Every structure is written in structure tokens, then in C-alpha cells.
Amino acid sequence: EGMTIDELAKRTGQSISTLQTILTNVGEKVGSEFDTLSIDIAELVAMEVGVNVRRLHSNEGTEILPRPPVVTVMGHVDHGKTSLLDALRQTSVAAKEAGGITQHVGAFVVGMTSGASITFLDTPGHAAFSAMRARGAAVTDIVVLVVAADDGVMPQTLEAMAHAKAAKVPIVVAINKCDKPAANAEKVRLQLASEGLLLEDMGGDVQVVEVSAMKKTGLDNLEEALLLQAEMMDLKACIDGPAQAYVVEARLDRGKGPLVTAIVKAGTLICGKYVVVGSEWGRIRAIRDMAGKSTERATPAMPVEIEGLKGLPRAGDDIIVVESEERARMLSAGRKRKFEKDRLMKIMDGRVEDPETEPSDEAPKRVELPIIVKGDVQGTVQAVTDALGSLNSPQVFVNVVHVGVGSLSQSDVDMAQACGACIIGFNIKAPPSSISLAASRANIKIMQHRVIYHLLDDIGNFIVEKAPGTT
Ligand code: GDP
């Protein structure tokens, strides 16, 4: 398995000599253009020239089987995304096995009596979806667009539609809160249609289901609609061969180190293998299913938690299996170099595009401010993240490395420490003293606010402190 230098040149559009130079740089022996490179090396080289080489092993004598759809829930704030996910999660396989108690792990699977199943990504909202897409991760097969029956189409409804359209992901509409007296599903249908959604009952192929997340009605219909949509899409994956998978969520556990929720797209992920994840690497020490049960292998659309990485990857990073520790280290180092180069390029682009920057001989260093945002609900987290983006300038790069809903936890502090970030708590309770203490010991700044305006003030001051002369 592998490809020749000649073949790689054709696929990347690079000259053979360019590729040979890169090969020498990464310490590979270089022979003729008809020498075969291993897939890892080919990938590494392709990345160095900015080309994403899809792995080749998928259609060689492997078994291709239908796989469950992976679904993301999107929609306007307060229209019931979280409630709907909660209601669906209660019917999930893990919830049944664990007696209803599940921890948030980024994804869950709902199994049908027919034997079919659906995988739901557990982070509602657009930020997660875009973050994944930004890394080229086509994880989501179907978007559930939640629209409140009493409120109708709102700005973020349209935004979600735009996201789905851009990603070419089909939508199934869930009109929620149908239990409310003010519910008007018919009006919502008309609004959606006038926004260009071709609804099924109007001759299109977008299915619409009426539900109530609160009363837990219509959930079966929603699940049926998702399976029907999946059937029409003819989702398939090969089970054999090394896994191709994506990170859905990553967090640091104090005892176990980086824990990654991953969804396999193709192949089988096997315990004990070396992997490269984004620019991190490791050896898979344990795989757990969503009920926390240890397993040896993960197959397509099955969300699992994996343990054994050396560093913390990001949502949307790809996971590839490599044959040895040496390869894993090398590929990870190559990617780190590439990412760093891209980051610098982006910063330079930012400088060029901004007319207000005065050209100077010394390139001013752009100060990066890694930030973790925690808020009471997804909507405020999104609003804070957007507001922070407005602080970006050629001198300052506000890098939101992690967002979350809920109170501050030790894992937030751990992550802040890992990436040198400060933490913003928006509209949440003050953390318990043990957490504050841990943060101050690690020299992590926590900013607690309830008003965006005050928050931006505080951050502005912080930026002046960190990077004098930038504002
Ligand atoms: P999100 O911001 O989209 O995640 O919305 P949430 O799930 O947090 O729900 C917003 C509010 O709507 C909460 O107060 C929920 O209790 C309420 N809600 C959600 N689903 C329903 C529903 O089906 N019926 C009614 N009556 N209220 C609902």
C-alpha cells in the first residue's frame, strides 16, 4: 500500500524535484520517481505542499456497508435545541444502559427497534459546526433545523440554513414547542418556504416534523424522518481497513490526560494503534463507548472516547492511523510546522488587508490572546465569542480556543493552563474556591461578567497590559 513519487506529483500538481527536496527535508531516502512511498510519507509531503491527499485504501477489496447518519442540531437561540437533544439523549443507547445517567461526551447514539441507529452530535449551534467545517471535517450528514412554532423563522434560523447549504448538508426541519397555545406550525412552514426551503408537503424534499421537546412528542417521527433522509442519501462506509475519524470534542482529564470524543467515518479504529490527530499524536490506550464501556474497536458513525494522545487536538481535527511511533512523531511534527506556517501566513494576510496599518520596517509582532469562554447558554457563549472577534486587529489576535456551557470546572482550568489562556465566565455563577485557587496558582486570569460591554472593557485593559502600545 502506498504510491510512487510520480503518482504523488500528479496528484499534487508539484514537480518531482520539489517532492524529492521535501522528502530529503523530512529525512526520507529518495530514490527514483517510481519508488513507492508509504501512505504516511505521501500524506506528509502532500501537506507540506498544501494538498490534502485522501487516503487510498478505501475501495480495495473492502466491504462497504450502510452506516448510521451523523446529525447536528441547529437553530435560533431559545428555540429548543438543547431541550430537544436532552429529550433525544434520554432515548439513547447509553442512557438506557447507564440507567438514564450520562455525562456529556460530545455525541450519543439513538437505536431503533428496527436495528437502525442515528448518531447525534451533542453540541448544538453554529459555532461547533463551523469550527469543524473550517478544518474540512465533513462529519455531519444531516442538520436538524429547530424552529419554535410560536416564534417562527429568526435570524439564526436563516444562518443555520446558510451553513447547511454551504456545507451541502440536507436539512430536516423540526418545528418545536408545538405544545404551546401560540404555536403556529403552518405559519412556520410558509416562512421557511418563502426563505427558499423546498418543503416536502409543498412538493420539495425537505421533511418537516412537528415536535415538542418538553412534552417529548413527535420524537419518533423525527427519528423516522432522519432515517428516511439517510436512506435517500445512501450513506455507506467500509468497515475494513485503518480508520478515518474526526474529533468531535477534546478535553483534558487530570488523571488520564487528553480525552477525545471521536466519530469514525470509515474503517475501524483499533485499540493499541498509533494515530496522528490534527498535529498531535499518540497511541490509543483505551477506547470507550458512550456508556463508558471499554471496547477494542470502533466502527463508522460510532462515537467513542479515546485515551492516549500526547496533546489536546481541536474539534474537527482528523484522526489517521499510522504504522509506528516514529511515523506518528514525524507526521505530527510535520503538521505542526505546516500549521505554524499557515498561522503566520494568515497573520501576514491580516496585516496586508488592513489599510490602517502603517508600513514599517520592523514587522510588529501580533499578540495572540488565547481565551476560553464559558456561558450560561449556547446563545450567550456565541454572542461573547462574536463580540471578542471584533477586538481582532493587526496587532492583536483574540483566539477563542474553547467554548462551553455551564459553570467553570477543573477541566477548563486545565485547558487554560495547557494553552496559556485566560477564562471568561459570562452570566454564570462564581466558581467554587477550589477552582479559583487552582486558577490563581496556575496564574490564569478569570474574568466574570454579566454585561458584554463591561467584558469588552475588561478585555481591552487586559490587552493593553499584555501588549502595550497596541490600541
Ligand atoms: P436553545 O437555546 O435552542 O438550546 O433552547 P433551549 O433548549 O434552552 O430552550 C429554550 C426555552 O424553551 C427553555 O425555557 C425550554 O424549557 C423551552 N422549551 C424548549 N422546548 C420546548 C417545547 O417543546 N415546549 C415548550 N413549551 N417549551 C420548550
Automatic annotation (TrEMBL):
Residues 66-236 form the Tr-type G domain. Its main location: mitochondrion. Keywords: GTP-binding, Hydrolase, Initiation factor, Mitochondrion, Nucleotide-binding, Protein biosynthesis, Transit peptide. It comes from the Eukaryota. GO terms for cellular component: mitochondrion. The keyword Thylakoid does not apply. It is found in: Mitochondrion. GO terms for molecular function: GTP binding; GTPase activity; translation initiation factor activity. Belongs to the TRAFAC class translation factor GTPase superfamily. Classic translation factor GTPase family. IF-2 subfamily. One of the essential components for the initiation of protein synthesis. Protects formylmethionyl-tRNA from spontaneous hydrolysis and promotes its binding to the 30S ribosomal subunits. Also involved in the hydrolysis of GTP during the formation of the 70S ribosomal complex. This is Translation initiation factor IF-2, mitochondrial. It comes from Rosa chinensis (China rose). The chain holds residues 129 to 599 of 717 of the full protein.
